[in-house]
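Example record

The entry below shows one chain as it appears in the dataset: sequence first, then structure tokens.
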Amino acid sequence: MLRPTSTYQDMDADGLMAAVTARDAAIKVSKIKDIKVVGAHRQSVLIDDNPVPQPLDVVAKFLGAPASFLASSDLQLAQYIVDHQFKKVKDKKELVFRNSRVVGHQPTGSYRISGTQVVEALIKGVGEVRRANLAEFGGHVDITLVGDKVTMKPKVGDITEGGLRCLYSELLARPPQLEPYVERLVCANGMICRDRLDVFTFETMDKFLEQLNFSIEKSMKFVDTTIRAQLEKAVETKIDHSEQALRQIFESNRINPRLLSPTLAALTVEEDGSAFGVLQAITRAANTAGYSHRIAMQEIGAREMARLETVHCPTCWSTLTH
């Protein structure tokens, strides 16, 4: 299960930019001369003359060697394997350090994604940033932000703002991706439009930014048209048995049953006799779930809302959505 190494929540544009700028500045790429297996700490190695132990599992991936074997085998044998593999890869790969700690590797001479340029594009796309969150996973980040370019009021006094979710790895440890995101201000719960996910393939940073800007424009237009219409449809769609509908959504999407109780509690707050209340209960409950469950529930909220176009029966959610 994914767990962020650190999270920053409810930031403004300056705070978000400062966080990614710090990440950019902390990354260093280096060709090394020597790797030594540490006898007393078999989960670590020493690199060159640096006395700070470095994680064996990360260095093992750089070497193309099994970390479990290096950790458990005879010290002399482990060092022999390290030396043998290092000779094979030292001219082809570079180790990547963040704040003097090894976090990965890349081919020699590879370029990196600039987080500051990515965030500049995101901020320009959403307008004045109302709220931004950033989750760090060491090798990549997950950013969500909403702004004032798309503001919707599906119910009187209930404001939802359009935004974006972007995942990227400075070292291309995973392909960058972007998808539309909306956030309801009354309880800061969001929906991720996974069906509109863009994943980028590119050869230069300029090409990536060109694709990113196009995707941002497309995503914000999708929020302003399709999502706006879906929210209005959700408010108009009446549900006779909200709890039954919620249980049906949990079953059909195979949501962890442990999350049902807090979602039912959220339903008591959201209950308004409409599909909007049912879906908002799911995304409201997502706020208190762990990272992986929160993302999944935010995606389910958006997916189920999109299915309301096939509504026929005001009683049974199964016939509403399938």
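Notes for this example: Residues 205-236 form the longest helix (32 residues). The CA atoms of residues 141 and 199 lie 15 Å apart.
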